[in-house]
Structure formats: C-alpha cells, structure tokens
Amino acid sequence: MLIAIWEDLLGRGPVGIRESFAALGGDSTLLARMIDCVEETCGRKVPQSLRSGDATIEELARALVQTPSAAATPRYRAFFARNVEMARGESAPPFFFLHGDLYGHGLYCLRLAGHLGKDQPFYALTPHGLDGRPVPGTIEGMASSHLETLLSLKPEGPYRLGGLCNGAFVAFEMARQLWARGQKVERLILIAPRFPSRESALATWCRYYLGRLQRLVRLPAREQAAFFKEKVHTCLSVIANMVNLRARQNLGGERVATPEGGSRRTEDARDRVMHDYTKVMNAYTPGQYAGPVTILWGRAELAQGPEGPAKIWRKVARQLEIHQVPGGHLTCLTIHVRALAERLRACLDSEPTVNT
After folding, report:
1. How far are the Cα atoms of 12, 141, 168, 196 from residue 269, in angstroms, in the given order?
2. Distance CA 32, CA 159 (A)
3. How many CA atoms lie within 13 A of 92 on its CB side?
4. Which domain does 242 fall in, by range?
C-alpha cells in the first residue's frame, strides 16, 4: 500500500523500501500529501519521528504495524480472522463485497466502508485459503462456499454484490448462482476485474518482471544501483535465513525468525494461496449473466482504451455499465479511495444504465 502511494505521488517507480522520501525526490508539499494519504488509507497516525523526508517505506511500515490507533485496533484484529461487518445502517440494503486482497487482508475496506457512509451496511468477505484451509479448485466452488455465508446473513434477496480483482470474478459467479436459484441480484459492481489470462503461470510472471525491468532501465544510474543493492541485500537475507533454518531443523530446534523479527511462514503461505488463485483464475470461463453489471476501472488501467476490457465483458453480460475512477489497480484503493467510494455509492443509489 505504501509503495503504491509513494509511486503515485512521486510519479515514478519502482521505488525501494530502504530509500527515503526525500532521496526519491519528495519535497515538503509532497511529504504532507503523503502523510495524509497514508493516514487516511491505513487508518493509523504516522509517528512524529517519521514525519520528515528521511523516513523510508520500511521504517514507516514497521511503525504503522506496531502502533495502531486505539480506535482501529479491534476492527483490524477482527479482519484477520473472519468476514467482517464494516458498517451497520438501516436506510440502505447491505452491500456484500469480496475484497480479493490476498496479502493485505483487505484492510483498505476500512476506509472504503467509512467513505460510503454510516447508513450503508458493508460486509467484507475474505478470500479462501488465508485461514489455512484449502483453496477451492474452481471459481464456481469459491462462489458456492461464499453463498453459504451470504445466505446465513441475508436469506432472501434482492442482493447487492461487489468484488475487487479476483473477488470480482467470485462475485460474478455468485450472482449467476443466485439468479439460477430464482433470487434477484439488484446490483453487481466489479472493481478492476482483470479478465482471466489463458497464458501459463510462467508466462504471467515473465511478463510481469519484464515490465518491471523496462521501468527500471529508465531510472538514473544512481537509483538503479540503489535498487540492485536492496535486492542483493534481500537475497542474502533469505539465503542466510534458509541456512539458519535448516541448521535449526537438523538440531531439532524451532523455526527461526527473520532479522526483521517476523517469520517467513506467513509470507510463504500467502504465496501458495496466490499460486492457487492464479491457477483457478486461468481455468475460469465465465458463463452468461442476464442481470445488470457495473464495472469500475482505474483510468491508469484504461490507457489502452476502454474497449479492451469492455469487449470481453460484453460477451457474458447482457446489461453492462462501465465507469472510470481515478488511479490504477492499487492506487484507486489507496490514494483515491474517497473518489472510488463516491462512485461506488452513486452506483448503489442509482438504477443501472444498460449497455453504456
């Protein structure tokens, strides 16, 4: 989240987590905006000691994790364990949202729900696999499992569903299954629903890292050197931890923590969940859906033109409505979360427009 905020404000990337905001070109004006964005996105106050341009992402992230605000702590704790009702209200039907965040536990939903207003009930549904249980082998299986939770909270429709990224596909499939049961889905709102790729996992990762390499070669030599220095340091730390871990295992000891004080076990588990989700997404072929569908795309993702993603979704959705929101895949949830919430609330409060 912090990387996305810094790259958007500084207008450059990739940024290193051990480089200070000032060293990356941030002036006092950008620093003030950065602090505001971080506090609004994370729901926590930036410590006074880190309100200078000398702070790094690594230092800032550690401080935010270790010193949550008293008001946010109970809600954050709940988010790590289960599906959470983020906001309770009486004047609007509940909105069930599959947050799709495999690494950050959907913490952005705290700010998103807050900006939607206290009168809008908001339920965040957690992706499978984050609790240690197996990930269903299909999107249809994920949707069926989430429907059990949905129906336990609201046995009868009409329903309002939404989802981000991978969660958007699960929400789409949930809507199809509800329609098949004769239930009405009043609104289905998908945020940044990147259509499943048919390429292999290897090709996906190659394309991702080639894109990062292209951005890297455009950086000045000094910044390239700092980037590679950081990566070498990370690799050496990983190797040292692996050697240390193997030595402890041979001696019958416990798992060794990383120098930063945490264990790689959680990170490895999340990587496995991401791998499982990638396979499931690549194998998913969405069926036809007769109800209204609204898609919210970040403007940065539509640089190639809106017809890129739109023409694919028009093949499966008979009633399609597309809106643009500020930011990209991540920054629409961080820096521009207020604008996203305003557009989302407008969509929930209005009747869908057909085929726009």
Report:
1. 31, 21, 22, 23
2. 41
3. 23
4. 201-278
Of 335, 312, 309, the C-alpha closest to 324 is 309
Res 243: pLDDT: 60
Provide the b/e sequence for 244-281 (b: ≥16 CB within 10 Å). Answer: bbeeeeeeeeeebeeeeeeebeeeeebeebeebbbebb
Residues 180 and 266 in one domain: no
User: Are 182 and 295 part of one and the same domain?
Assistant: yes
With CA atoms as reference, report the closest residue to 50 among 41, 59, 40, 39. Answer: 59
Q: Based on the fold, state whether residues 178 and 218 are members of the same structural domain.
A: no
Specify the higher pLDDT residue, 256 or 20: 20
354 lies in some domain = no
Cβ atoms < 10 Å from Cβ of 234: 12
Q: Report yes or no on 147 lying in a domain.
A: yes
Task: Report pLDDT digits (tens) over 131-172.
Answer: 778 889 999 999 999 999 899 889 998 999 999 999 999 999
Strand pairing of 95-98 and 159-164?
parallel
What does the alpha-carbon distance between residue 25 and residue 64 come to, in Å, rounded to a whole number? 23
With beta carbons less than 8 A apart as the criterion, state whether 161 and 171 touch. Answer: yes
Same domain, 114 and 62: no
Same domain assignment for residues 103 and 146: yes
Quote the pTM value.
0.64
Are residue 38 and residue 168 in the same domain, yes or no?
no
In this predicted structure, the answer to whether residue 261 has a pLDDT above a threshold of 70 is: no
**CB-based contacts of 179, cutoff 8 Å, min separation 6:** 185, 289, 290, 291
Beta strand 122-125 with 159-164: parallel, antiparallel or unpaired?
unpaired
For the chain, what percentages of helix, strand and coil (3-state, to nearest 5) are there? 50, 15, 40
pLDDT at 241: 54
Number of domains observed in the structure of the chain: 3
